[in-house]
Amino acid sequence: MFDWLKVLLLPIENPTVTNSIVAIMLAISTGIFFGRLKLGKITFGVSAVMFTGLILGHFGYRIQPGILDFIRDFGLILFVYGIGLQVGPSFFSSFKNDGLKFNILAVSTVLFGGLVTLILFKVTGLKIEDLVGIMSGSVTNTPGLGAAKNTIEEIKNSFPEKTFDDPTIGYAITYPLGVFGIIGTIILSKILLKIDPDEEMKKFRKSKIDSELPLVHKKMRVTNPEFFGKTLHQILKEFGREIVISRLKHSGSVVVKSPTLDHELRDRDVLMIVGLEKDLDEFISSLGRESKDLFIESDTDIHKKNIFVTKSSVLHKTLSQLDLFNTYDLKVTRVFRAGREILPRPSLELFYGDKLRVIGSKEAIEEVEIIIGNSEKKLLEPDFLSLFGGLLLGVILGSIPIMIPSLPVPIKLGFAAGPLIVALLISRYGGISFIHSYINNGAIYFMKDFGICLFFAAVGIHAGDGFYENFVKYNGWNWLLFGSAITFIPLITMVIVGRFIMKINYLQLVGIMSGSYTDPAALSFSTNYLDSDIPIQSYAQVYPLVTIFRIFVASLLILIFS
């Protein structure tokens, strides 16, 4: 009676499309379930899909070859594109601060891992594709494995007579080692270096006291006679710092206005100013003193509101081009973009999804809302034209052949690096034509996690086919030993160099360790283990460049030595 259900749910040697879909859904659903279980402070999250896929593959579940290739590649594309959109803004801005130092350390670790892999290739006699798979698993780098498989396919297309081992086997054998190896290194380094997370947090806050400070607003009263009769334009030009004067009230009056730059200051004028706290304190000490006047905060004549940029007609226009103040008597005091606060310079270009904080009359705000859009509902709806347009550009970029002398076939960025680079550039410049960078956080997390689940399910089930036999055939214990060298030698070197030579805060160093090995499980563990979100920041700063270098190292090793 239930034979149809057995055929549908139980493993089958020659699966139909339906059997393939069921296998993928089983791997993902069971993986997510087990990924949520806690082993001490460790949760594996979506990484557990890889392990459940291996188990299902070992017990006979299969996916049709065409479907497997599609699921694997499409999942990888979604994952790296989502990562690029998520970390793009902080990635580029970080280079003004510690980002350059962090990326030098992380990329050096990647190259060192490639060197260790090359030495093992010369010493052990293993095929380079096996060692690249071992390397990708040992550093839990999924895009590197994807790039390796794409490179092998390109070589096969040009040289059909060549045969290759499947790097997925080495990846599957050493992937658990990579996950637990990084977590173990974090635990041991904390103990051996006698790290106090609270003390590291204090040091971190102290080091950041003059950088990445939030914008604040303060009230002040003008009492210095030197500035009476001067225009705001003259005063701000002399001061030389970026400050926005959002409101002004004359002494003895209750009327609050948003002043123009040609407005002349009077004795005892009260101003509302916006900027960095240090700059505001200097400005106040030069012109007068802080004020406790409550009338300037009154909304009777002047209103404050956040407006979202959602109309295509204003995208990539600067604030000076919109000229909201002279046209509508409305002033922009702050711009919020990708979690950052930005002072509204006249040259600031507006991106889709930007949030403008404006002040002015109720009527002016309503008029500007019509021009700018302010459709929060529109922001919640995914723009599939923009999304798939960006993915298409990423695939095109990843497919461009790059000729390098002495290499047997052109190198390509592939499905891992191409979409990642496009996403980074789109997030940096706000978009290309009709393709914009804004996707709400919920959609990005869904795309990223859904993509990696598809990839892990496909790779895991494929690698699980004959996993035990392969472990015995290839002497898996030796492969684990080789993987240990690739995991621990660069990682321990990174800890020593980062902590003692580059003097990096341990909380940031842990994020760099997790980012260099592109390991979300280690990142999740470290934030719980150290009770801090700081590792997430440094993880995001190094992840994009590390991913690109992991892809290139994997591809070049196969191209040069296969």
From TrEMBL:
<dbReference type="InterPro" id="IPR006512">
    <property type="entry name" value="YidE_YbjL"/>
</dbReference>
<feature type="transmembrane region" description="Helical">
    <location>
        <begin position="169"/>
        <end position="193"/>
    </location>
</feature>
<keyword id="KW-0472">Membrane</keyword>
<feature type="transmembrane region" description="Helical">
    <location>
        <begin position="410"/>
        <end position="431"/>
    </location>
</feature>
<keyword id="KW-1133">Transmembrane helix</keyword>
<keyword id="KW-1003">Cell membrane</keyword>
<feature type="transmembrane region" description="Helical">
    <location>
        <begin position="102"/>
        <end position="121"/>
    </location>
</feature>
<dbReference type="InterPro" id="IPR050144">
    <property type="entry name" value="AAE_transporter"/>
</dbReference>
<feature type="transmembrane region" description="Helical">
    <location>
        <begin position="443"/>
        <end position="464"/>
    </location>
</feature>
<feature type="transmembrane region" description="Helical">
    <location>
        <begin position="384"/>
        <end position="404"/>
    </location>
</feature>
<dbReference type="Pfam" id="PF06826">
    <property type="entry name" value="Asp-Al_Ex"/>
</dbReference>
<feature type="transmembrane region" description="Helical">
    <location>
        <begin position="476"/>
        <end position="497"/>
    </location>
</feature>
<feature type="transmembrane region" description="Helical">
    <location>
        <begin position="44"/>
        <end position="63"/>
    </location>
</feature>
<comment type="similarity">
    <text>Belongs to the AAE transporter (TC 2.A.81) family.</text>
</comment>
<protein>
    <submittedName>
        <fullName>Transporter</fullName>
    </submittedName>
</protein>
<feature type="transmembrane region" description="Helical">
    <location>
        <begin position="20"/>
        <end position="37"/>
    </location>
</feature>
<keyword id="KW-0813">Transport</keyword>
<keyword id="KW-0812">Transmembrane</keyword>
<dbReference type="InterPro" id="IPR006037">
    <property type="entry name" value="RCK_C"/>
</dbReference>
<dbReference type="InterPro" id="IPR036721">
    <property type="entry name" value="RCK_C_sf"/>
</dbReference>
<dbReference type="Pfam" id="PF02080">
    <property type="entry name" value="TrkA_C"/>
</dbReference>
<feature type="domain" description="RCK C-terminal">
    <location>
        <begin position="290"/>
        <end position="374"/>
    </location>
</feature>
<feature type="transmembrane region" description="Helical">
    <location>
        <begin position="75"/>
        <end position="95"/>
    </location>
</feature>
<feature type="transmembrane region" description="Helical">
    <location>
        <begin position="542"/>
        <end position="561"/>
    </location>
</feature>
